[in-house]
Structure formats: C-alpha cells, structure tokens
Amino acid sequence: MARTILFNKPFGVLSQFTDSSTAASPSPTLSAFIDLPGVYPAGRLDKDSEGLMVLTDDGRLQARLAEPRHKTAKTYWVQVEGLPEPAALEALAAGVELKDGPTRPARVRAIAEPAGLWPRDPPVRFRKTVPDSWLEITITEGRNRQVRRMTAAIGHPTLRLIRAAIGRWRLEGLAPGRWQEAPAVPPGRA
C-alpha cells in the first residue's frame, strides 16, 4: 500500500532531502524533519515559503500532484504589501501576464490573517508607513515562484507565503516542522 504524508515545511527549509549547493552555510532540508525511506516530494515549495507539502512513495500520485497538466488546485495564504484594490484582485483572478506568459485564471479573495498562524522565524519586516494585508489565492499550475510573481505584477509584493492546501488535503492542525500520515484519498481525487 502506498505511503503518503503531509508535512508543514518551515521557512528557510529546502523542499528536498539533500542540499546540493556549495554555500558555506548549507540550508536545512527535509531530512532534518522526515526520516522515512522511499517518500519523495510531490512538487516544490521554495525556501522562502512555508506550509503544506505532500510526500509519497506512489509515483502516479506524485505526478498527478506535481505536473501542471493535471491542474491540481493549490491554495496559498499570502501576506502582501499594501491593500489591493478590487481591480487588482480581479486582475489576479483573470490571469496576469508574467515574463513566461499569462497565468491561468485563479481564485482570489481578501482574508483576515489566518487563525492560529504561527510566528515566522525570522519575522516578516514591518513598516509603520506601509500597511499589509492577506489574500487567499488558489492556482492550478505551479511555475517557479508563481504566486510571488503574480502579486508583484499587480504592485503588491509578497511578504509571506504559506501553502494551505493541495487538492483536498489541508494544512490545519499541522505545526511547522511536523508531519502526519495523509488521510486516504480515493484514486483520482487528490
């Protein structure tokens, strides 16, 4: 039987098991938190992002979650600089033009800071003169740093990015740096 786990990746952790960089101070990797042979990430989450990752030993599930052609929905909580106007949110929802082409339409809504949110280490920079706000953005593709580039395209740079859901799996109740077995999902329903 396939093994699938959910992991809440902390800020600053690479979404791989080894650090292949030649940096003098290597970054922590998944191996600092997960000691399970044979499971691999189903998709990426950049070092500066936090939140839900799915790891599995099921190659078909891994492909279904990671490959853009399968259009698996991924939901993010995004703290942005400034207070986006309705027109900016509508632009995100319709799809914005990035250097590598237009994005697919997204689901976007302004939200309050998510309940039970843990402090980030290091903290997000705070500026008295520039307000910030939270958005919930759901996309069905996964280009490199896509959500960050989307918010920058509407003039509201991302300050903090947390993946809250992948398909029907949700982050709720999973502390940073912790993992748990994923609830069973019927085939084709991830």
UniProtKB/TrEMBL annotation:
Gene Ontology BP term (one): pseudouridine synthesis
Keywords, alphabetical: Isomerase
Domain Pseudouridine synthase RsuA/RluA-like residue range list: 4-153
Cleavable signal peptide: none
Pfam family, one: PseudoU_synth_2
Superkingdom assignment: Bacteria
PROSITE patterns: PSI_RSU
E.C. designation(s): 5.4.99.-
InterPro entries with a match to the protein in the record: PsdUridine_s_RsuA/RluB/E/F_cat, PsdUridine_synth_cat_dom_sf, PsdUridine_synth_RsuA/RluA, PsdUridine_synth_RsuA/RluB/E/F, PsdUridine_synth_RsuA/RluB_CS, RsuA_PseudoU_synthase, TruA/RsuA/RluB/E/F_N
Molecular function terms from GO: catalytic activity, acting on RNA; pseudouridine synthase activity; RNA binding
Family: Belongs to the pseudouridine synthase RsuA family.
The name this protein goes by in its record: Pseudouridine synthase
Source organism of this protein record: Mangrovicoccus algicola
